[in-house]
Amino acid sequence: MDKVDMKLLAAMEENSRISLKNLARDLNVKTSTIYHRLHKLKESNILENFTIIINPEAVGLNKHIIMNIRLKKMVIGKLDTMFLESFGKFLAEQYEEVLFSSVGSDEMIWIIATFRDDKHYEQFKSEISENPYIENSETVLLNSILKGQKIFKFLPNLLKQEAKGDYFSEDDEDEKPDANKKSNSSEDDETDIFF
């Protein structure tokens, strides 16, 4: 990576929807240069993805926590560390609520998680405390997010199905299928996602 790559990444971080033409103008290089550099940054895994930033409260995710989790000692030595890392990955994959998971130097798993409401949070906390591998956990509730909303993903399963937002009118939500079109899916296959 050189200075152009660094400036390119900084500009993309600021606005990932900026056009190649505007990037080229801002960085004082050719559009083809921007295209090739973006391609190389993707190939080398420096640039993993182009994404959007979600405002969690706007989609009904209102309770955010940082939790540290201490596992029960299984064996002493390297296997403990391997189990710790494996369990951290398990939490991240098993619970859609877990947005971030990391193993700390204090042999704790640290997670950031988000929830719709107190009931959803209490259910998660209960499941964690009942896990036979977990010795204890401590939680810090976060009041507001000042920086770092990029950590949030759009996770439809976390949203309240009954809580419809203002993004669609009732007509849009209750759109009737065209009588002339045949549907290939049964009623059981349909999934409604409301904001």
UniProtKB/TrEMBL annotation:
PROSITE patterns, per the entry: HTH_ASNC_2
Keywords, comma-separated and alphabetical: DNA-binding, Transcription, Transcription regulation
An annotated GO BP: response to amino acid
Gene Ontology CC annotations of this record: cytosol
Database matches in InterPro entries: AsnC-type_HTH_dom, Tscrpt_reg_AsnC-like, WH-like_DNA-bd_sf, WH_DNA-bd_sf
Domain of life of the source: Archaea
GO molecular function, one term: sequence-specific DNA binding
Entry keyword Transcription regulation: yes
Transmembrane parts of this sequence: none
Xref: SUPFAM superfamilies: Winged helix' DNA-binding domain
Classification via PANTHER family: LEUCINE-RESPONSIVE REGULATORY PROTEIN, TRANSCRIPTIONAL REGULATOR AZLB
Protein name: Lrp/AsnC family transcriptional regulator
